[in-house]
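Q: What would this chain look like folded?
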Amino acid sequence: MNESIIYSGLTSSAYIDDKFWSEESKTIFSDNWVFVAYKHELNNIGDVLPIKVAEQPIFLVKNAKEEINAFHNVCSHRCVTLIEKAKNTKKIINCPYHAWAYDLDGNLLASPHFGGTNNHKPKNFNSLDYGLKSVRIKVWHDWIFINLNNNALVFEKYAASLIKHLQDIDLENIKPVATLNFGEIKTNWKFLIENFIEPYHVQFVHKKTTSQPLSDHYTIVDGLCYGSGVDLEEEDSSSDNLAVTSKYLSLFPNFIIGTYFPGQLGVYLNSPIRPDRTNQKRIIYTTKNNELTKSQIEKQKNLWWAVHKEDHEICERLQEGRSSPIAIKGGLLSPHWEDSVRAFQEIVIKSMNNSKLVEKEINYV
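A: My prediction, written as structure tokens:
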């Protein structure tokens, strides 16, 4: 970013307007690879997990080959949703309405009495034509992405910039050791991303939970990857405060990963619900030869819970502030510390470039 220019941020409507959220669903969350779940949440054959992306009901399922499939969560008959909650469905996915049945690869197995009593396949009815509709899916290490409309690049190209920044991490041998389920946060999904990728707030918001001076931070802007990092000469991984060399990276639109030496990762699932509500979950991972004891894991959980609660309070206040007429123009962005935020916002607008709603959403002053 040109540090001689002070930019304004996205206007308030980008965070509070239902129409803007509707356009995001049609573009951002349909055209791109969206992070939706963790692979380890589907351990056994027959495990199913319902999700919602761009207000569309989807479900994930582990098939007999131990592959994870994604399908639109609607029966081919009357389009009722099939999966209501995470569970194991064994070998068959049954519709609760008229007992149509599908296998774990989405093939229609049964359509009982569809053509009349004991006439399960009426004339001109071909079961092969009425299987479940699949959704493009990519399982990358422990993280599951889907692309609703098949428009995204091959995942490895789409995520190339992020992959480059993680090349020193042994992602093949990560182990999930703890889950922090924060549930519903009263804020727009973009605020959670923006807050994570800029270092400007750290010494103010996290002064009780971190020891990472602002002067040691730097920002990262690289294609669809953006974030920040901090390099510390003296690290203390045993402290109650976060005081280690770290990177805070995001892949557009909603994948967030933090790397913390020695050998720890945090990956966040931010699932938008509506303009002012987002579900958030964080998984803590360790890498090979960097195992943690039970007491160390508990300590890390407590530390990260405290850090994120500080972030959530700020993001909820950001959301509240956007209801003021003072916030209509979007406030200001630091040309030095918030260039990653600016880059993220520009990608939001670029992804929605066919929408008239966004023509004047981002400017500089």
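The domain at 162-345 is CATH 3.90.380.10 (Naphthalene 1,2-dioxygenase Alpha Subunit; Chain A, domain 1).
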